[in-house]
Here is the input.
Amino acid sequence: MKAVRLLTLSAIAATAMALITQAETAEASGLNGTGSARFYWDDARGDREHYSSDFSYRNSQINNSTFCTNYRRGSIEYRGCRKAAREWLKRQCDSDRHRDDWHRMYCFAASSFRP
Here is the structure.
């Protein structure tokens, strides 16, 4: 009886460790994928420029360098797009319509974004 009880406790402990490992793996991987956004920028003359861009995210972190890659780096359009993307991320962070994991992802990206 004692041997059966020890085996059972051992099996329970092994199952618990496997479940903990699965949970940690799922948490560490987070959100992964790509997204697209449409945003605008009001320039100094008061003209509104519209931009669209794809972006990628991995482990619940947006890769800010993936914004505006459809514009030539250093061009006026690229700089305007990057400014607009920064403001878009701030608006997404301020919005309460996102799930917590997405909200954290947008807020972290907004705080670390450099046009």
User: Anything to note?
Assistant: The chain has two domains: 1-29, 33-112. The chain is about 50% helix and 20% strand. The helical segments are 2-29, 76-94, 100-112.
